[in-house]
């Protein structure tokens, strides 16, 4: 306890990697609590080694496609062994099927790695609206330090003992959010949306538990919480992808005009690979995948889901 207290007192400087929507919002939340913050991106004048000099916490909000590259460069920088690495990316690596925290932990086996994930639409956070999130790590003390660094009157941070589940909740819901956008774009109604989100959660639990997550984590803020936020907000880029596909735009048109990253598009492909290898049934993800590939129209995808074999709600 004394050791944890002194660890927290030592935190003065936090470096945020990724100056996109989420990195900038996270940097502001840390600044609000009086810490010194360095915000780095590959476009900034500040070099990465300089950004990391004497830092106690590194927060990564790099999009999935850049995580491996940035991790490799960070590996070549001198960082103190006790530096806490926090990952806020919501995606899966298409080459290795690994999560961002696994990439960080593999590269830095002796550093504490903490996952930060929750229902956190960055625009709302930038508007100073209240929100809650979850931090999780196999190193509980590191998660507690990060909890304190981020917690404020407008950002309520919970700890959770299941880092894999917390990380996968934020990642898997992006695919269901694309489907939710389609549902709203096609004006299918509230009943359809409730069915989609609920069955989407079942699908997240099914694939997430195979990947090592605990079921109960998906019913918390980082699972259901984030699913609700993302499936119900036009601020979500993933939702926007689905919504605009339903209005007849092509994926290329949508991606060209989208402000920022929609991780669900790549995550969907990775999930299909995993599901095929491990024989996991993820019908909603499968229809999102076929829609993104141009193999079905939104209406055909809907029909495929509605006309699947009838079955019990749960398998015991
Ligand atoms: N926005 C949100 O509401 C939330 C987003 N997230 C997650 O955070 C992550 C980032 O999202 P967001 O900030 O919105 O996305 P943005 O597109 O706004 O920003 C992405 C950041 O990643 C950087 N980046 C991308 N590729 C590379 C690369 N190859 N090398 C170095 N840097 C790279 C970008 O740099 P550059 O500008 O130079 O391209 C930019 O700084 C995503 O995984 C997202 O799911 C999580 C919670 C909330
Ligand atoms: O993860 C998010 C909210 O928690 C952000 O969602 P989008 O990436 O779909 O905008």
Helices and strands in order:
Layout lengths: L1 H9 L2 E5 L3 H12 L3 E5 L7 H5 L4 E4 L3 H12 L8 E4 L12 H8 L5 E5 L4 H5 L4 E6 L3 H11 L4 E6 L2 H23 L4 H21 L10 H11 L5 H10 L4 H7 L6 H15 L4 H10 L5 H9 L10
Parallel strand pairs: 1-2, 1-3, 3-4, 4-5, 6-7
Antiparallel strand pairs: 5-6
The structure holds NADPH dihydro-nicotinamide-adenine-dinucleotide phosphate (NDP) and 1,3-dihydroxyacetonephosphate.
Keywords: Cytoplasm, Lipid biosynthesis, Lipid metabolism, NAD, NADP, Nucleotide-binding, Oxidoreductase, Phospholipid biosynthesis, Phospholipid metabolism
Subcellular location: Cytoplasm
GO molecular function, one term: glycerol-3-phosphate dehydrogenase [NAD(P)+] activity
Helical fraction equals: 40-55%
**Class derived from helix and strand content:** alpha/beta
Overall pLDDT metric: 97
Note poorly predicted spans.
none
Please indicate the count of domains.
2
Supply the number of helical segments. Answer: 15
What is the CA-atom radius of gyration, in angstroms?
19 Å
Please outline the major beta sheet.
7 strands, mixed
What is the topology, as strand order, of the major beta sheet?
2-1-3-4-5-6-7
CATH class category of the largest domain: Alpha Beta
Give a list of the ligands: NADPH dihydro-nicotinamide-adenine-dinucleotide phosphate, 1,3-dihydroxyacetonephosphate
CATH superfamily of the largest domain: NAD(P)-binding Rossmann-like Domain
- The N- to C-terminal Cα distance equals 43 Å
**CATH architecture grouping of the largest domain:** 3-Layer(aba) Sandwich
Global shape: globular
CATH topology of the largest domain: Rossmann fold
Instruction: Please tally the β strands and state the result.
Output: 7
